[in-house]
């Protein structure tokens, strides 16, 4: 029976740290604040926003919404971003993407100040992840994976780690963050030959394949730590991960469930980034 | 007896391609030109510069030197860079580093236009390598490794590749470039446990450990392709790589010698980047 690496335990500990940081900032007269720029009313965006603002409220972080119509012009959007960029009271900015097709998303990302880029989408943040420096912020999902490992005291140093998936949002940054923690890192993907044998040799596996249940017991071996980044809806309409949990669980040492694993940590990571951004203004 | 992957063969083929590109640009009235910014007279810089300018001459690429005294002020250096940045006749810029300590190197790199960053030092270039896009240019050394693989028709797709070293100049970009070519990539480093057994499993090995002869026959196995990035001086004062060539050569299928391997390709890669930068101005 594998140990469950539970997002709620990680989040609870992370929230306590964030609250302490917020209290510390309050003593210095600083109130962390998130600026949310949303174009249109896409249900996914609205739902994520609700989660984020609720978490902000719980943790004592303020937020301000900048809601723009779906047919906003590039000029209006850029003007809004410039205002939020230059507002010293706003420490972090979340911009929902993809933007409607008539807008130049690359130009928006380029204009976003890296020091306020709490979602890790700017070049500055990406270089920070690639170089292993504190420039900008890593994307929230791979950071949530690291929070889980750290919370459960899993030391990556010298471990054989395999990352399944090479996306710019999860796979590649997760690999760089594991490397920063001194793991020996292998990146697998759709072109990998005999992936089961490659994954089987790992001590630590981060799965971000983007397909339900693709990693099953053929890929896994005793003693492994498995972090499942996938969020999919299976044939019965239930949430499930990229790992076949029922088959994996009897084999491995520890595993994150879906739901209740990585996904449940990302919102606190985002809010934590806002607080960190506020702290950095003091440096 | 391993096949030797010879830099001079790669360079010869690369030079022909570059010359054809230069001729093509000439028809469109474009003369590719490299701007070289050098502060002081460090012998290593002067020697590299001589190699680069000679190669430019051979390939029909013009160059212009901007030589500044070792005690140049930040303002003067930035003014020079701005001039070169904004000179439409100059397509690529090489800035020798490290700069003298009184100068703010980060500010200089930040000011350099990514589209002229033929040495791959800006954030824009690094994101290009990390994301696998054509933004900026990769650093010349890992690009030279890829040129060698490509020249000898070594298809990376699905291959198990191991990169020894995780520097921002070689190891990490080489790993990303192999990933872009669909290899399954493992990154090893000083904290890797039992590195010989990890490297032994690879089909393709890029060694950028930065220490003479650390990879020997204990790390290697038959059938492997080995690319040695190291340039070291051994106890007898001779140039040698990070691979113990005498011990490796009888084991592996193909290997780059040192000298005469990767290092001999980088200068043409740099000049090739200048020509590519000139071509991109037409897009």
TrEMBL record, chains A, B:
Q: Which family does it belong to?
A: Belongs to the tetrahydrofolate dehydrogenase/cyclohydrolase family.
Which Gene3D superfamilies does UniProt cross-reference here? Leucine Dehydrogenase, chain A, domain 1, NAD(P)-binding Rossmann-like Domain
Return the Pfam families for the record: THF_DHG_CYH (PF00763), THF_DHG_CYH_C (PF02882)
The superkingdom of the source organism is: Bacteria
What gene name is listed for this protein?
folD
Q: Which organism is it from?
A: Lactonifactor longoviformis DSM 17459
Oligomeric and partner information: Homodimer.
Protein name, as recorded: Bifunctional protein FolD
As its record notes, the protein acts as a catalyst of: (6R)-5,10-methenyltetrahydrofolate + H2O = (6R)-10-formyltetrahydrofolate + H(+); (6R)-5,10-methylene-5,6,7,8-tetrahydrofolate + NADP(+) = (6R)-5,10-methenyltetrahydrofolate + NADPH
What biological function has been recorded for the protein in this entry?
A: Catalyzes the oxidation of 5,10-methylenetetrahydrofolate to 5,10-methenyltetrahydrofolate and then the hydrolysis of 5,10-methenyltetrahydrofolate to 10-formyltetrahydrofolate.
Q: Which GO terms describe its molecular function?
A: methenyltetrahydrofolate cyclohydrolase activity; methylenetetrahydrofolate dehydrogenase (NADP+) activity
Q: Where does NADP(+) bind?
A: 165-167, 231
Q: Its annotated pathway? A: One-carbon metabolism; tetrahydrofolate interconversion
Keywords, in A-Z order:
Amino-acid biosynthesis, Histidine biosynthesis, Hydrolase, Methionine biosynthesis, Multifunctional enzyme, NADP, One-carbon metabolism, Oxidoreductase, Purine biosynthesis
Listed under GO biological process in this entry are: L-histidine biosynthetic process; methionine biosynthetic process; purine nucleotide biosynthetic process; tetrahydrofolate interconversion
Q: Tetrahydrofolate dehydrogenase/cyclohydrolase catalytic domain: from which residue to which, for each copy?
A: 6-119
